[in-house]
Each structure stands twice: as C-alpha cells, then as structure tokens.
Specification:
alpha/beta, 9 helices, Spore Coat Polysaccharide Biosynthesis Protein SpsA, Chain A
Length: 251
C-alpha cells in the first residue's frame, strides 16, 4: 500500500512461461498488495509456473478471449479485491516493473488518476530494439490521434498503464473490443470522461521472448485506432453517438 491506497498489479498472460519469473521478480513487494494473473488459454506452462511462483490470484480462461477480453477479466478481479490503484503490466518483461513505484505514487498522491509508461519519451525506443516500421507507425498514429482527440500524448500504444479505481469504474470497459484495439478504446474513453493522463519514460526492451503482433494484425490494429479516434472526434461534437463513450454501470 501507499498510505491507505491498496495496489494491484494485473498481468494479462498468453504463453508467458519464459518471461514470467523475470517480470515477477522485479515487481515491488513493498507497495504491491495483490498480483493477479489472467491466463488466456496459453499452450505452455504459464499457469503451472505462476502457481509455483506463489501468485495467489490466478484466473484461467477456458477459451481464448483475446487481449482485450483478458484485460476485462484483470480489471474486474482487481476491483473485486477493492484495489485503489491498478497497474497493468505485461508478463513478457518488455516493460520495467521497477517503474511501478513512480507510477503509483503519482496516483496515490492525487496528482493524476492515470499514468502511462511511454517508450517514446526520450530517445530509447529504437535503441531498445523497437522495429523501425513499428516506430514509424507509432509516430504516425499518435500524431493522428492527438489531432483528432485534442491531446498531446507521446504515444497511445504502450502496454504499461496505471489507473485509479475511480477511472476503471467510470469508463465502460465491457463494451470495448476483445482484440488489441481495446487499449486504444480505453484511452479514448478516459479522455472523453474528462480525466488527464500523465506519462513517464519507460525503457524499451525488444527481444525474442517478448510478445509482439505480426504485420497483418498490426495493420488491423492501426485501422482500428484511426476508427476510434474518428468516433471520438464525432462524438465530442455531438455528430455521432458511440456506445464506448457511454458511462459505465456501477461496479
């Protein structure tokens, strides 16, 4: 805890056996109260290893629900445990767990209610191994989104995020996609609800075991991102109603 704020780290897992232990080892136990792993029907030994490593809260999907569907289970469990701050951390060791302190203190002290770990702030993205085509796509999509949404984030595509429970209860996560565009819909919902988002620099780590989507799915994701931004633009101006921007039922 930080003060009286309970903290949960949620890990949406899919075939994370090779990197789970390294990720878990660096999660700061001095402030984190709950570690939650949701396994999306992995074909490796992720769940067995999670139990051996002592993770208390493990949810096993009986069928693959997708990246967005996995996160929905993560957040519902964190809220069920009465967590005040929820950190989403991929168990593929691509993001540095040691930043959890900084992200959570910003929320616990009431400075921001959402904090992102940005790979683009600073100059480390390409040095850390981000493929050039992904870097270019990231910059193009982020520019497009900042124009359409009216914000100034360095990137919308990081998988390292911390939220207050208030934010998670306010936005309607259940109507979002179960695919990768879930992440983007979530940020659009947060801005639409009037929250501000902080960013801190996160070192970039790309290696063989780190999760990544192929070019085909990347294109699908990019088109989905542009669609989300367009719907946001139109919804803000009262031109088009979108169910993702409706307030969530009470959780």
């Amino acid at each position: 805890m930080i003060g009286d704020k309970s903290i949960a780290v949620v890990m949406p897992a899919y075939n994370a056996e090779k990197t789970l232990e390294s990720t878990l080892r660096e999660i700061p136990s001095d402030i984190v109260d709950h570690v939650i792993l949701v396994d999306d029907r992995s074909s490796d030994q992720t769940v067995i290893l999670a139990r051996e490593l002592g993770i208390k809260h493990i949810i096993e999907h009986q069928e693959n629900k997708g990246y967005g569907g996995n996160q929905k289970s993560c957040y519902l469990k964190a809220l069920d445990l009465k967590s005040d701050i929820v950190v989403m951390l991929h168990p593929d060791y691509q993001y540095d767990p040691r930043l959890i302190h900084s992200m959570c203190y910003l929320i616990a002290n009431g400075v921001y209610e959402v904090v992102l770990g940005s790979r683009i702030l600073g100059t480390g993205a390409l040095k850390g191994g981000m493929p050039l085509y992904k870097y270019i796509a990231n910059r193009f999509l982020t520019l497009f989104q900042n124009i359409m949404i009216g914000q100034k984030l360095s990137e919308y595509h990081t998988g390292y995020r911390a939220f207050s429970a208030n934010v998670l209860r306010k936005i309607n996560l259940e109507v979002n996609s179960d695919d990768f565009v879930f992440d983007n819909q979530m940020l659009a919902q947060i801005f639409f609800a009037g929250f501000e988002i902080a960013e801190i620099t996160c070192p970039t780590k790309y290696f063989e075991e780190a999760s990544s989507i192929n070019i085909g799915r990347s294109i699908k994701y990019g088109l989905g991102v542009m669609g989300v931004s367009l719907r946001y633009f139109l919804a803000k101006r009262g031109i088009l109603k979108s169910r993702i921007f409706r307030e969530a039922p009470n959780l």
